[in-house]
Amino acid sequence: MKESGYDYQIVRGFTFSALFWLIVGLIVGLWIAFEMFNPALNLTPWLSFGRLRVVHTNGLGLGFGLAGIFATTYYILQKLTRTPLAFPGLAKVHLYLFNIIIALAALSLFAGMNTTKEYAELEWPLDIAVVVMWVVFAVNVFATLAKRQEKQMYVSLWYIIAMTVTIAILYIVNNLEVPVNWFKSYSLYAGVNDANVQWWYGHNIVGFIFTVPILAMFYYFLPVSSGLPLFSHRLSIISFWSLIFAYLWTGAHHLMLTPLPEWIQTVAIAFSIFLIAPSWGSVVNGYYTLRGNWEQMRSNYLVKFFIVGITFYGLQTIQGPVQGLRTLNAFFHYTDWVIGHVHMGTMGWVTMTISAAFYYMIPKITGTGLYSIRIANVHFWLILVGQLIWTITMWIAGIQQGAMWKATDADGSLTYSFLDSIASLYPYYKIRFAAGIVYFMGIILFAWNIFMTIRTPQKAYEQKKEGM
């Protein structure tokens, strides 16, 4: 199958969408990080922390994350099946519908229309639109798989299938609701059942956006960018089925020490600890793929994105299950430690992997080389340093926060008020904001590099290369 037979316009469209929503989401994130130590920035209800925070999470998680996933999925799907998209016109509908939904979601959340359910804040008309969009995507995925010319199902395709099926089930079940009017609805569930379903969804929607499809990218792009075969296809398949089996049972670890039945909490803890094994199966697979070729961490600018990214994935998949243990959960839950944990995954593992995937993919589909490897290297170090300062600062803040909340005097009364703990965190919030600026600078370089790669004609690139 010739490269020209594939539909790369849709890949390019979702790439631009991902970069746009990434920059918008980070600007909102910087604003609310500034608000944390300068509350005067809550100028209007539209710019209040409560509204901006959900715009930030949805804009990056769904706007950037899903757009990056769709871009790479459409690329990987065609390459691994050796088959063009079954319905290229439907893929364009998907692209337009996706961006309309994200724009309307941001607008509605800015306006305060919010179900108050974590990662499921959109009101019911947009929920229906999301389901329609996902069906459009799923039709193309499964139709292309059905027509595939390559019969061997590489592990990345299994991860794509798992994402496509599981997110549909999660989203529909958790977002069942009773509309009151066009702008307000109430969950079909109530009380502890509502909490249990919500965190079954909340944990797993993150997993099947920020873990499963990102692993699909990792397993495809690391071997092709390094020129090395995957260490073990068998290990990748064992890791896949173990991860898929265990992940869906872990959501209740967000509800430790609550009225949720204790046996459900215990099941969630057990499966959370078990998850370390399949997660590290992928980490080890990545490390061993490079065995004997570790010099590529210096010579191949893409490899360091993937290997450092999978390292953060491995660290996060130890930190997350351990946080689910009751004793540690009682200390860390609701503190900024959790914020650091989440952002190590999103700023490290997810963004690094998507960045490297774009750096490999875009030059291939444009027929040019990357506009600037030097800029890519600067981008890598800026987001690495920014992310490390950001997350470590939040871990330290979280430890201090938890300790202050639990400190008591000899008579049993609390040593510190809640306001005391907030005031003590201001220095950490300032450092976090500064780290966010460093990270944002790296992302601007990333977006510029991709934009210029697409914009530079092949002839101009060849002339530039000859002149070097």
Automatic annotation (TrEMBL):
Residues 14-468 form the Cytochrome oxidase subunit I profile domain. It is a multi-pass membrane protein. GO terms for cellular component: membrane. GO terms for biological process: aerobic respiration; electron transport coupled proton transport; respiratory electron transport chain. GO terms for molecular function: cytochrome-c oxidase activity; heme binding. It is found in: Membrane. InterPro entries: Cyt_c_oxase-like_su1_dom (IPR023616), Cyt_c_oxase-like_su1_sf (IPR036927), Cyt_C_Oxase_1 (IPR000883), Cyt_c_Oxase_su1_BS (IPR023615). It comes from the Bacteria. Keywords: Electron transport, Heme, Iron, Membrane, Metal-binding, Respiratory chain, Transmembrane, Transmembrane helix, Transport. The chain crosses the membrane at residues 12-34, 54-77, 89-112, 124-146, 153-173, 199-222, 234-257, 263-289, 301-318, 338-360, 380-399, 431-451. Pfam families: COX1 (PF00115). Belongs to the heme-copper respiratory oxidase family. This is Cytochrome C oxidase Cbb3. The lineage of its organism: Bacteria, Pseudomonadati, Chlorobiota, Chlorobiia, Chlorobiales.
